[in-house]
Amino acid sequence: MNGKITTILNSDLLEKYLLGETTSAETEMVESYISEYPEVRKAYDELQDNLEIVAKSNAIEAPKSILNAILDELDEKPVITMTNSTSQRKKWYKYSIAASIAALIFAGTAYKFYDMNQKLSHENQVVVDEIFDLRDDIAKNNQRLDEIMKQFKQLNNPETEKYIINGNYRAKNLKTVAYINPKEKTSMIDVVSLPQLPEEQCYQIWAEVEDKMVNLGILSETDRQLREIPYTEDALALSITIEPKGGNANATLENAVAEISLNKIK
User: Fold this and answer.
1) Is residue 126 situated within a structural domain?
2) Contact 13/30 with Cβ under 8 angstroms?
């Protein structure tokens, strides 16, 4: 083995060349030695094998600066005549790096599209939910509008009688309005104002039929809107009494706070 071969084998030129850290002059010299001397080519191949083993066992990604340097060198180096083994290894490195970069780009793009698809699916679901809510609101509004139109027709019906019920000395501020149509057999009541009661009491409205009182429901200050109450055939009068919370099965006549005769109803 001549002195030049010994010198290059004992130096770190092969390692630097493998890592792409040699100068242009050093690169030309190393490549000429690899091409010309089998001993140098063998040492270079062993270094490549060792680098592959270390890289795979530790799974350490090479620094970007080294990868870039290797790619630059692969693109810029002049073509030299080397053994098929060395040429194939250099191609393998270049293709494997390119494949890794392509895989990373593909993975990043796939994740981006997946994330966009997830966001789009969520937005679509929100829109669908809002549409269902809107349809539900429209249905409720239409139902409420139908009820209002029905009440409006009843109030404007010539057969509908209006009765204003005012409270007595027990409930001076009490005021309700009853709308009764004996022909259509409908009854409605509008709570205008109700004096506040203790929490354990409530107002209850009754229809007087001959010698009995028929329960028509509980009146509440929080329910101040025109609403239907049961129509009572042959009712003689309407009365409002104070009853225990939740209502009573029988009217407490001594607690009556308002009454009006319905003699007009035939």
Assistant:
1) no
2) yes
Whole-model pTM over 0.70: no
Asked which of 40, 62, 82 is the last residue of a domain, the reply is 82
Q: Is 59 exposed, middle or buried (0-12, 13-18, 19+ CB in 10 A)?
A: exposed
Count the domains in the chain.
2
Q: Does residue 53 form part of some domain?
A: yes
pLDDT in tens, the chain (266 residues): 577 778 777 888 887 887 788 888 888 888 888 888 888 888 888 877 776 665 555 444 555 555 566 566 556 555 444 445 555 555 555 566 666 666 667 677 777 777 788 888 888 788 888 887 888 888 888 887 777 777 767 777 888 899 999 999 989 899 999 999 988 899 999 898 999 999 999 999 999 998 899 999 999 877 677 888 999 988 999 999 999 999 999 999 999 999 999 865 44
Domain boundary among 49, 82, 115: 82
Cα separation, 87 vs 185, whole angstroms:
104
Domain of 180, in residue numbers:
161-261
